[in-house]
């Protein structure tokens, strides 16, 4: 008898038929002899509808009241799914975030879980009930409802799995698992049987939006085995865990990220503290910098290039312009026509030739590389956006097929 | 500085404009120097929409899950109204039923308030905030969400006013107060300045659906002064309190109730225990009997007539038929063509001539009286349904105009 946490997103419970589809998956898991805790998100468009209601009232709602409003979405889902389970003859009970013991900090709309009191969930499991928990929400020290922010239901599920020492946490989505590349773009992309937490983190941050990063980090921290699995066709999906043993699978995935702007500052004085001045300015504006490239410099000057999310490009440029005198008045330019293409694989650093194979694949397609960044488990290149799909295909061919 | 509890129903907060209308009423009350606690129901059709969602899943939802589902309706309302208040510059905070301290028994879907812990509400008032509370809901001893059943938000408001020792509890509706008769039918009907709890209870049970009876009973029990007032045109409405001092206003209202069936049993043996047998049979079926008339009897037989709600008539007749032998096999008949017309006024018993004035008014219109029932503060007659409106007008003319 295993304990399994199953998480279903908003699309998976968007209407009556999808709710019963989920109820049957849960029933089958239960009938196979497992204890089951289910975490659900708000139905389909519910959250957007609630946000629209608030927008009619005010353009600047208080975060506390917004959380009060949005938390109703998951509460509706848990009640309906529990009714469906009961209709199928499965003993079940719904619990809101606060009933399930999610204690968070005070940061409305992006709260972090501080403590999880599993007493109620465990007592319901002991009564042989399937426990249906509202994801995305918790309670702060003032007894006020909070929400966990984007991807919050994944985080709720992983936190519950960790606190309950569950045997597995299954994240049900509309895809069948994690692929070596986007299967809509690369027909030869294959589903991975296993992937490590670190590889998953790199792939997620590189634009392969399958799992929310925060939930993967939490799963890594508490060593919760995840499975990414389809709610439409629940065949075995992709297991995400600490170490994998898949032989010969050096590169786990090729990912593309179009959300990249390259900002360059020419002729920065080559004196100590210049990088600090630039990047502390951006940090103050909450702008995340990814790849940084610094030219080696000549005649006491150097060039600085770095990437930021596309949506932050204008804010970054205007912040830099307003302080341009501090950087010696060098010319600031922004390039929004770039994409980042990356390969991820935990073992690549100990294998020679990975980078050269990647660069050869790009060269074979006559694709120019603008920037390069490497880490232990990934290599990223910045190239022209128009070349990105061709690049992913060529790299995927070189490594995986 | 007074403390005022204001309750707004679902129609009053059904959309953005109505929400801001309510927010302005609250703001004006606040700006007049009062502390304000607001109780709101779910928006317009929200509850019906949620019930429809559940009906798609199951024809027999668990009451617990139904309460979990329905409680989201008021939670949406309190968040939106609080946002509107904040948008108008009014410091405000929303509280769910459980946050506001409503502790109930375990009876899902028709829970009764056991205890109200006002600590949180009082601490928010002390911070100069308008407190916006979700009506209709509470928490039972298992920390599970309950709802109070029909008219629950009125009850929530009165309970809060009682526990907080509020100076007044205003129930906002779509009518401007309590009238001497239905103003849509009797153009001369006038709005009452004041009415006693007992008179209000009689009027409500007689078909003048302004206030929920349970909330009036609670207000009477804790001596909470109520005001029935319009949310569209919030001029002074009708005050409901223990004693009124309106001179010369003997009769407070004339009410009509079409929801009446008269059941007759002919030739019941005139022996002890017969009435008990009849009415205990109906009590077992949860059928409320209102007016009872018993003929004086002759030759060891008597006739028994009584009224029940129209919807219960068939059930009553079939229950009686199945046990007809116990009543000597007397003929059982049902009359669905009657109406009950009543006058209500706390002082009528000490004034002679009230009944005769009423009967004279009916006689002047040539209306036949089938049954008569009197109590300390009301006189009811059962007449033909087709005569009911004419009767109300004639009686209203005789007493009020």
UniProtKB/TrEMBL annotation, chains A, B:
- Keywords for this protein: Amino-acid biosynthesis, ATP-binding, Diaminopimelate biosynthesis, Kinase, Lysine biosynthesis, Nucleotide-binding, Repeat, Transferase
SUPFAM superfamilies per the UniProt record, alphabetical = ACT-like, Carbamate kinase-like
Can you cite a GO biological process for this protein?
Answer: lysine biosynthetic process via diaminopimelate
Q: What GO cellular component term, any one, is given?
A: cytosol
Q: Which Pfam families match?
A: AA_kinase (PF00696), ACT_9 (PF22468)
The UniProt record gives the binding positions of substrate as 47, 74
Describe the reaction catalysed, as an equation.
L-aspartate + ATP = 4-phospho-L-aspartate + ADP
Q: Which GO terms describe its molecular function?
A: aspartate kinase activity; ATP binding
| Positions of the ACT domain | 263-335, 343-401
Outline the subunit composition: Tetramer consisting of 2 isoforms Alpha (catalytic and regulation) and of a homodimer of 2 isoforms Beta (regulation).
Q: PANTHER family given for it?
A: ASPARTATE KINASE, ASPARTOKINASE
| Biological role | Catalyzes the phosphorylation of the beta-carboxyl group of aspartic acid with ATP to yield 4-phospho-L-aspartate, which is involved in the branched biosynthetic pathway leading to the biosynthesis of amino acids threonine, isoleucine and methionine.
Q: What is this protein called?
A: Aspartokinase
The organism encoding this protein is Subdoligranulum variabile DSM 15176
The major lineage groups are: Bacteria, Bacillati, Bacillota, Clostridia, Eubacteriales
């Amino acid at each position: 008898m295993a304990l399994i946490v199953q998480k279903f997103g908003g699309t998976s419970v968007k209407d009556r038929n999808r709710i019963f589809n989920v109820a049957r998956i849960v029933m089958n898991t239960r009938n196979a002899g497992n204890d089951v805790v289910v975490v659900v998100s708000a139905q389909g468009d519910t959250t957007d509808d609630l946000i629209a209601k608030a927008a009619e009232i005010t353009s600047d709602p208080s975060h506390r009241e917004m959380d009060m409003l949005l938390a109703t979405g998951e509460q509706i889902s848990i009640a309906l799914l529990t009714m469906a389970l009961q209709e199928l003859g499965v003993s079940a009970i719904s619990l809101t975030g606060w009933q399930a013991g999610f204690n968070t900090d005070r940061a409305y709309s992006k709260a972090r879980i501080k403590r999880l009191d599993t007493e109620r969930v465990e007592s319901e499991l002991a009564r042989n009930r399937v426990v249906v928990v509202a994801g995305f929400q918790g309670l702060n020290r003032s007894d006020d409802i909070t929400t966990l922010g984007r991807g919050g239901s994944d985080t709720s599920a992983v936190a519950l799995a960790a606190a309950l020492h569950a045997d597995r946490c299954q994240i049900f989505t509309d895809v069948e698992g994690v692929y070596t590349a986007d299967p809509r773009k690369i027909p030869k992309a294959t589903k991975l049987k296993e992937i490590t937490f670190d590889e998953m983190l790199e792939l997620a941050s590189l634009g392969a939006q399958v799992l929310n990063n925060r939930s993967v980090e939490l799963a890594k921290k508490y060593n919760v085995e995840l499975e990414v699995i389809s709610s439409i066709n629940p065949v075995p999906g992709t297991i995400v865990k600490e170490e994998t043993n898949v032989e010969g699978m050096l590169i786990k995935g090729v990912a593309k990220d179009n959300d990249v702007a390259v900002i360059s500052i020419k002729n920065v004085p080559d004196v100590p503290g210049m990088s600090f001045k630039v990047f502390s300015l951006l940090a103050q504006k909450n702008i995340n910098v990814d790849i940084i490239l610094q030219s080696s410099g000549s005649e006491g000057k150097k060039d600085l290039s770095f990437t930021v999310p596309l949506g932050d490009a204008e804010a970054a440029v205007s912040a830099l312009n307003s302080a341009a005198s501090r950087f010696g008045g060098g010319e600031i330019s922004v390039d929004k026509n770039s994409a980042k293409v990356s390969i991820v694989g935990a073992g690549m650093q100990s294998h020679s030739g990975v980078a050269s194979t990647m660069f050869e694949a790009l060269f074979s397609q006559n694709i120019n590389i603008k920037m390069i960044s490497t880490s232990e488990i990934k290599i990223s290149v910045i190239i022209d956006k128009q070349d990105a799909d061709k690049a992913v295909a060529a790299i995927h061919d070189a490594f995986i097929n």
